[in-house]
Amino acid sequence: MKNLFLSALSIAFCLPAFAQIQMPKEQLQFYTAAWTGERMADGRPKVSDGLLQRLKKVSLEEAWGILKGEGYNNQFDGNWQIIRPDQPMVGRVLTAQYMPARPDMEKPIKELGKTQGRKGNTNSWPIDMLQNGDVYVADGMGKIVWGTLIGDNLGNSIYAKTKTGIIFDGSVRDLEGLEDIAGFNGWVRGFDPSYIQEMTMTCVNCPIRIGRAIVLPGDVVLAKKEGVIFIPAHLAEKVILNAEFIGLQDGFGHQMLREGKYTPGQIDQAWTADIKQAFLKWIDANPTKVPMPRADLDKFLKDKNW
Predict the structure, then answer these.
(1) CB-based burial label for 69 (10 Å; 0-12, 13-18, 19+)
(2) How far is residue 195's CA from residue 154's CA, in Å, rounded to a whole number?
């Protein structure tokens, strides 16, 4: 009994050392173990800037279909209000989770934040961690009134750090001010003049739910008019390359139909050896229409099971 008491006492004294606002790097790496490439300093997978730029041209439907084929059925969510609907957004996800305020939870969180050098209200802490190319994604419980996670001041800070924007299952205030931030974009549930109340930021860089999608830190997000899709980092290159190839096939097929060289029935079904050969010749004759590096395309074609 004495040893049991001492063990419990030892654990109790150690608890503050294990208290975290940000998910420990080791646990984040555990959740994202399928990623084998470069990582950010905080442990998030770092999908390359080049792939992010290519992702902008991928359609949501193509990305969704490829992820579904890989068994990822919970990565999309729609029905958003968008600050700039005609401006797609991509980036590496940094997550934050918010919960209803509770004094006995909120007080130690704020006290721990002070010991870690965090300043301001908890809704500003994730912003301090953002880097270029990040997208700030927050589970704000879908709260609109008194659930505005940022206004134009924090919006300016976010854009200065990331050059992207936000995705909030929650709301924002100061829409006119946010619209004045050239390049800034946001997918939110609503706009409201109220300020954040009765909410506490409980975790940064942890798994969260956004509508019907599950999101991990370091996921790559593709946000367009139809909604947002969160792509696991280890599948980003596969999704992009497959989507680009589908687009390349479509470009060839559309041109062949316009020129009357093949019928819709020939193009819409599995291609014959003759059509495949014509497609490969068309690629060689139209290098500017190839969206991926040629080496990537050649490897893809070598491995592809037509």
Answers:
(1) exposed
(2) 12
CA dist 292 to 51, 59, 65, 176, 192, Å? 10, 15, 19, 38, 42
pTM: 0.89
- Provide the CA 239 distance to its chain's centre, in angstroms: 14
Residue 207, Cβ neighbours under 10 Å: how many? Answer: 17
CATH number (3.90.550.10, 3.50.30.40, 3.60.15.10, 1.10.150.20) of 49-231 reads 3.50.30.40
Residue 244 identity (one-letter amino acid):
E
Within 10 angstroms of residue 10's Cβ, the number of other Cβ atoms is 9
Location of each CATH 3.50.30.40 domain in the chain = 49-231
153 is in an annotated binding site: yes
Q: What is the pLDDT of residue 12?
A: 38
301 assigned to a ligand binding site: no
Please indicate if the annotation marks 175 as binding a ligand.
no
Which pLDDT band holds residue 20 (cuts at 50, 70, 90)? confident
Q: How far apart are CA 85 and CA 67, in angstroms?
A: 24
Model confidence at 77: pLDDT above 50:
yes
Does the annotation place 152 within a ligand binding site?
Answer: yes
Q: DSSP assignment of 134-193, as one string?
A: EEEEEE-TT--TT-B---HHHHHHHHHHHSSEEEEESEES-HHHHHTSTT-EEEESEE-S
pLDDT over threshold 60, residue 293: yes
Pairing of the two strands 165-169 and 134-139: parallel
CA distance 25 to 11: 22
